[in-house]
Specification:
Length: about 300
């Protein structure tokens, strides 16, 4: 309690220096430095939430001084401290109202806004990714989707980074059982690889990292189509469309490197014939668990696929 009282006294003393007085201009730069020093001391004492409040006060001072980089840095430090405090509470299983998490979300949002105003989308995207990863680790994939999507939009000038962010977004959609949304994201990723990826002269086939991303997207899309509960007519239409879209693994030498993995050509043939059992026979026994009866005979059942 004595340490807490000492903190409050010092915090109020620094705050009083910022009050306007007659014929005297407050020294905002000095107050910002003192708030930063107090935040460091509180962090060493493991008072993370109090240190975060000092960083917020420092950010307000930097905003008054029109120092955008300093403001963004202070907001980022405050957001990370609030996030660490929330993780500690969860580790201790302490009851709460997620107040530290909400404070971290607000700080991240303001820091991202400052970086966007500074015309630094890369820094803003990195903070969006950091927040998305934190929410995903805290078993909140539904909330992380928005931040991964924002990161992908901010990374339009870096196709590979944007595709990786979209891949995280697709993963979160799968975790929330939004298979339709995940399928749409993976389709968009494949089109983006074909449009913006490096290609061999005279061909439309992407190379390098883009080819690897296309391969993963195609396999994931096949598995998602098998997971979705669709009608017989829609299933037949999908089986006719699959050979038109899933082509990279069939016509590229990358197929020769698939040893124990899925042979996409045989998968397409099995899907076109609506033979789920044949599709499952292409996978190792440890990687496929199917329903006891064929899928087309049991419209309400689902096929569960677990791929290494």
């Amino acid at each position: 309690m004595a340490a807490e009282g000492d903190f409050l006294m010092r915090y109020r003393a620094v705050s009083n220096k910022l009050k306007k007085r007659f014929l005297r201009k407050p020294n905002v730069a000095e107050a910002s430095e003192q708030f930063g020093q107090l935040a460091k001391e509180l962090k060493q004492q493991d008072c993370l939430q109090y240190a975060a409040f000092c960083d917020l006060a420092m950010a307000r001072c930097e905003q008054t001084l029109f120092n955008a980089p300093g403001e963004a840095l202070a907001l980022t430090d405050a957001a990370r401290l609030f996030l660490l405090s929330e993780k500690e509470n969860r580790a201790l299983q302490a009851p709460g109202f997620d107040e530290h998490l909400q404070a971290a979300l607000n700080c991240y949002s303001f820091a991202i806004k400052v970086y966007i105003e500074m015309n630094q989308p890369v820094m803003a995207a990195s903070l969006s990714l950091e927040l998305g990863n934190a929410l995903k680790e805290m078993n909140r994939p539904g909330e992380a989707i928005v931040h991964y999507q924002r990161a992908a939009e901010l990374q339009t000038q870096q196709p590979i980074e944007s595709l990786l962010s979209m891949g995280e977004m697709a993963t979160c959609k799968i975790l929330t059982r939004d298979y339709d949304g995940a399928l749409s994201v993976l389709t968009e990723m494949q089109l983006m690889c074909q449009e913006r990826g490096l290609q061999l002269p005279g061909t439309s086939t992407p190379v390098g990292a883009f080819l690897d991303i296309v391969a993963k997207c195609e396999i994931s899309r096949v598995l998602l189509l098998m997971l979705l509960e669709v009608s017989t007519a829609s299933r037949r239409l999908l089986c006719l469309l699959i050979p038109l879209h899933f082509t990279s693994l069939v016509f590229n030498s990358f197929l020769q490197t698939l040893t124990d993995d899925v042979s996409l050509l045989n998968c397409v043939i099995s899907l076109k014939a609506e033979n789920v059992n044949a599709f499952c026979s292409l996978l190792p026994r440890s990687c496929c668990q199917s329903m006891p009866r064929p899928w087309r005979d049991t419209p309400g059942s689902r096929l569960t696929l677990i791929v290494r």
